[in-house]
Write a structure and sequence with these properties.
single chain, 17% strand, 8-stranded mixed beta sheet, Rossmann fold, 362 residues, 14 helices, 45% helix
Length: 362
């Protein structure tokens, strides 16, 4: 018995040593640093500051701060997107814009356990957007800036463009959320069914059928937890990154990101969980922007990946076609799903450069 006990202690010690070593390696690989540039007018900043009584986080990249400012409203809700800029190095948007990645109140690097979750409302986030915009306009000496929402962040960006049009040269939304009606669920269902059928994947086909209700008009309605439905979209290749699972496309980039410290990575997850229980999450249910926001007074541009069925691109194209705006355009990016700015950076950045040229005098 004594020998067995001693052996178990040795094994436990080895396991603890391995865990400690892996943690040390993780810390070394997580310095919390961001892209740097040469040049007098270049800028690389990462900081947290108070906005309307709550912390907001910022990553700012620019090769030349004389360029227009682009405020990128993070996805989720509650997901910081600088992680993809950290992983997919070919993205060079900072050569044409001063890019400001914004972690809105209490999320990402701005996570604070003491924040009042009830304060995370659409009203407060729109006020924060306005305050951040004024800060950026004053700091960089701009009359207007560009506003870019990504995925869940398009809820905020689209509404801010409607409420504060005088602040923005244009709205540029990537993976626009359009509606959570059966129209969306049906497009997602059709994509997944086609993919799983082509793979002879009967297990996922059965799982898919168990997640939906077939309606009399031929459409389907998702009856499962939304996170599970989206996870299945990832399995079909139409999620965050084309043909990558949620673990490959989201989890691994966060784990190995250099732009966050270990503490910031842990807080990233804590912020995500907090946003799931915030009023903002409920306020972004049962929406249809085709009805709620049919008109904008500034130019509006929409970018989607051809395999994006997290926010189905067909709905974005339809929304762009019916939206009344001084100028508008829909761009479909090949070889990309939900994140074309990072998946196909050359084509997406070329489009953003074109948008800048079109709207520079507006």
């Amino acid at each position: 018995m004594k020998k067995a006990g001693k052996k178990m202690l040795i094994i436990l010690g080895i396991l603890l040593g391995i865990v400690a070593l892996l943690y040390i390696i993780w810390v070394i690989l997580s310095p919390g640093t961001i892209r740097k540039y040469d040049g007098e007018k270049s800028l690389s900043e990462k900081f947290v500051m108070e906005v309307n009584g709550a912390p907001s986080g910022f990553f700012i990249n620019s090769t030349n701060t004389d360029n227009p400012v682009l405020l990128l409203v993070s996805s989720g809700p509650g997901s910081d997107d600088y992680v993809y800029t950290d992983k997919y190095k070919d993205m060079c948007l900072e050569e044409d814009f001063t890019v400001v990645y914004w972690d809105y109140r209490g999320m990402g690097i701005a996570y604070d356990s003491s924040i009042d979750t009830d304060s995370i409302t659409m009203e407060n986030l729109l006020k924060d957007t306005h305050t951040v915009t004024q800060y950026l306009k004053e700091r960089f000496g701009k009359k207007k800036i560009y506003l870019m929402g990504f995925s869940g962040g398009t809820h905020i960006a689209l509404r801010a463009a409607k409420q504060y049009p005088e602040d923005y040269a244009a709205l540029i939304d990537m993976a626009q959320t359009v509606t959570d009606s059966p129209d969306r669920d049906t497009l997602m269902y059709g994509f997944m069914k086609d993919v799983f059928t082509s793979r002879n994947d009967n297990a996922d086909l059965k799982k898919l059928e168990g997640m939906v209700e077939h309606l009399p008009d031929g459409k389907v309605k998702c009856t499962a937890a939304w996170i599970d439905y989206v996870d299945l979209v990832h399995d079909a290749g139409g999620g965050t990154i084309w043909n990558k699972t949620e673990f490959e496309g989201i989890v691994l980039p966060i784990i190995f990101a250099k732009c966050y410290t270990v503490r910031e990575k842990i807080n990233y997850i804590r912020g995500l969980k907090m946003y799931q229980h915030a009023p903002f999450s409920e306020e972004t249910e049962n929406f249809d922007y085709r009805v709620e926001i049919p008109e904008l007074s500034i130019p509006a541009y929409f970018i989607s990946g051809q395999y994006d069925y997290n926010c189905p691109w067909e709905l974005v194209q339809e929304y762009c076609s019916i939206l009344r705006a001084p100028a508008k355009e829909f761009y479909l990016i090949p070889n990309a799903a939900h994140s074309p700015l990072w998946e196909n950076p050359k084509e997406t950045c070329d489009i953003l450069r074109t948008i800048k040229e079109k709207t520079s005098d507006e």
